[in-house]
Design a protein that fits this description.
Strand content: 5-15%
Bound molecules: zinc ion
Shape: elongated
């Protein structure tokens, strides 16, 4: 009896681990053509306005619904070049 209860308790843990693995891969690709990072919000991705993104990368971006989804590192690069907005 005790063993069965323990085996059941272990099942949710496996599912959690799989979820974490999926999150690392990501679903949303970075909108910057030269970059193959992930733009998922769970992975630190951000969305920029088309104007902001084109200021930075020109036309080499993928526009979706008037926004450009970028990965964490691309957002950092962009932020470095747009320091007028210091607050998050
Ligand atoms: Zn990127």
């Amino acid at each position: 009896m005790g063993f069965k209860a323990r085996a059941k308790a272990n099942q949710p843990k496996v599912e959690e681990q799989q979820k974490k693995k999926d999150a690392k891969t990501g679903k949303e690709t970075c909108g910057v053509n030269s970059c193959d990072g992930w733009a998922d919000s769970t992975l630190g991705g951000r969305s920029l306005s088309v104007t902001d993104a084109e200021d930075m990368w020109g036309k080499a971006v993928v526009v979706r619904k008037n926004r450009v989804r970028v990965c964490k590192s691309c957002y950092r690069t962009w932020k470095k070049n747009n320091k007028q907005e210091d607050h998050y």
